[in-house]
Structure formats: C-alpha cells, structure tokens
Amino acid sequence: LHERKRKRLIEKVLFALASVLVIEGCLLAVMPTRVKTALELLVKMSHVSISRIGLFFMVIGIILLSVIEI
C-alpha cells in the first residue's frame, strides 16, 4: 500500500512538471514578446515579492495536485 501511494505521488509530480513545460513552451512559442515584457517586470520586483508570489503558486499547485485524480 505504501509503495502504491509513493508511485502515485511520483506520477503526480511528473504530470505537474510535464504540464508546466507544455504550458510554458506554448507561451514562449505563441507570444514571446509578452513573455519578455513579463520577465522585464519581474526583474524590477523585490526578492521578497517574487518569493511570496512563488510560495503562493506553490501552495495553489500542491492543493490542486492533492484534489485532482490523474
């Protein structure tokens, strides 16, 4: 039982990583100028703000992964 849960967790993490790569790849391919503008705005933000945004997205992602069945 423990091994099955571990395998399921690994599958969820790999699914999440693959999804991010697909979405980010699409954004870069479809609208590179907007992505570049967003990155320029990101450079102007403080490290604390960027860390908080990253933590927020991480928590939302963990919640979504725990809710969905893949």
What this model shows, in words?
With 70 residues, the chain is mostly helical. Helix content is 90%, strand content 0%. The protein is built from three helices and no strands. The longest helix has 29 residues, at 2-30. The radius of gyration is 16 Å and the shape is flat. The mean pLDDT is 91.
**Overall morphology:** flat
> Which structural category do the helix and sheet elements fall into?
mainly alpha
Query: What average pLDDT do the residues reach?
Result: 91
Return residue spans where pLDDT drops below 50 for at least 5 consecutive residues. none
- Strand residue content: under 5%
Helical stretch count? 3
Distance between the termini: 18 Å
Helix content: over 70%
**H/E order of the elements?**
HHH
Q: What does the largest sheet look like?
A: none
Compute the number of strand runs: 0
C-alpha Rg (nearest Å): 16 Å
Index terms:
70 residues, mainly alpha, 3 helices, 0% strand
